[in-house]
Write a structure and sequence with these properties.
about 240 residues, alpha+beta, 5-stranded antiparallel beta sheet, 5-stranded mixed beta sheet, 10 strands, about 15% helix, flat, Beta-galactosidase
């Protein structure tokens, strides 16, 4: 469970026999500290951070082979034991404004594309090695489906020396070092397996013009829905002595 700072606008929702005295206590303390104007910022920042932590934990479970499953204790805040602001939804099962159902399903669905890598921050000229997988618990094989990848720089350009997106059945894409703002392609899924499916690998030496963030999005169309998983990678230009 990951907590978020309370949203004091929720106080007006309590119109029945219950009253959120705890909200009022926290608000008075914040006002006494001279930070009441930052209440919305605290709520949003802590909420977005909790979403990232839930995403990381759920993807960790999905990447674990033979994992029996996972369960969230609750998806909403629970006011029955004091203050437990641990939900993605508030106590009224309404949105906190920190994520959307569509975004949540990117990493919490029957079928989820995954990227397995040792770290997320790299220096300019450093080699990146990542495994592309799919957690498939949708009840049917993904054999013959196509997994689309899209790589984009937040600012500036990048290139990849000897970069490849490859599958177990052979190399499918090679970048020869051209500068670009974005690139995309397709990986074919050859496995009949369900559960954790190995799709392919990403290998390459990245170069950037300046420190930037690269966003790799994996997307797969599966019968009724599509899922995608975005991985942020920051590349720091190497400094010469």
């Amino acid at each position: 469970q990951f907590q978020t700072y309370p949203d004091y606008r929720e106080i007006k929702k309590y119109t029945g026999v219950l009253h959120p005295y705890n909200f009022e206590v926290f608000r008075r303390r914040l006002a006494a500290a001279g930070m009441l104007s930052q209440a919305d910022d605290f709520h949003k920042a802590s909420g977005l951070w909790s979403v990232k932590l839930y995403k990381a934990d759920i993807e960790m479970d999905l990447r674990t082979r033979n994992m029996a499953g996972f369960q969230l204790l609750d998806i909403q805040d629970y006011p029955g034991q004091g203050s437990a602001f641990v939900g993605i939804l508030d106590a009224f099962m309404e949105s906190k404004g920190i994520t959307t159902p569509e975004e949540w399903r990117q990493w919490c669905s029957p079928v989820v594309p995954l990227l397995e890598m040792k770290k997320f921050c790299f220096e300019d000229g450093e080699k990146i090695q990542a495994k592309v997988k799919v957690a498939n618990y949708g009840g049917s094989s993904l054999k013959g489906k196509k997994l689309k990848w899209h790589l984009a720089a937040e600012n500036g350009l990048f290139c990849m020396d000897d970069g490849t997106f490859s599958t177990k059945d052979g190399e499918v894409r090679k970048n020869v070092g051209d500068l670009m703002a974005e690139d995309e392609g397709v990986l074919n899924i050859f496995s009949y397996d369900e559960g954790l499916v190995d799709v392919g690998e990403l290998n390459g030496v990245f170069h950037v013009q300046k420190s930037t963030k690269l966003l790799l999005t994996l997307n797969i169309e599966v019968i009724r829905f599509s899922t995608s998983n975005a991985i942020s990678v920051v590349f720091i230009p190497a400094y010469s002595s």
